[in-house]
Amino acid sequence: MPHLQFEINKKISNETKDKFVNEIRDTFSEIMDTGTDHIAISIREYDKYNLTIGRANPDDDICLMNLDIREGRTIEKRRELALRYMAIVNEVFEVDNRNQYITFTQHTGEDFHLVEKYLAGWETGEDPLA
């Protein structure tokens, strides 16, 4: 059950958030070859000066992303996801790509729990809730 967390230093409309989470969920499912029902997404909005990246100007929009995922994905898949997410953040939230930062944290499947069960290790083409 990935938990995809996005922190941004500006306010976003509900309509924009809805578009964003749908694109993020669909992109994860496509690239990581999994279903969508177990994907959790958080959007946290902060005031302008509560997020920073050293190379950004203080007035810039910034997006920090922490992606908690199951072990098993290659660096190529993680890189593809990172670049696609940066493009989505740029397009939907209008944050310059240079002002985005992504951290992946990998967990075993048993670190992710839903009411039905904990998840197994990742497998190609899986439906983790089946």
Protein described:
- The chain is of the alpha/beta class and 130 residues long.
- Strand 3 (63-70), helix 2 (75-93) and strand 4 (100-107) form a beta-alpha-beta unit.
- Helix 1 packs antiparallel against helix 2.
- It is built from 2 helices and 4 strands; from the N terminus they run E-H-E-E-H-E.
- The model has no long low-confidence stretch (mean pLDDT 90).
- The protein has a 4-stranded mixed β-sheet with strand order 2-1-3-4, with helices on one face.
- It is 29% helix and 22% strand.
- The two termini are 13 Å apart.
- The longest helix has 19 residues, at 14-32.
- The chain has one domain: Macrophage Migration Inhibitory Factor.
The CATH topology, please? Macrophage Migration Inhibitory Factor
Number of β-strand runs: 4
Which strands sit side by side, in order, in the main sheet? 2-1-3-4
Describe the global form. elongated
N- to C-terminal distance? 13 Å
Helix content: 25-40%
Radius of gyration: 15 Å
Number of helices: 2
- What is the string of SSEs from the N terminus onward? EHEEHE
The secondary structure category is: alpha/beta
CATH architecture: 2-Layer Sandwich
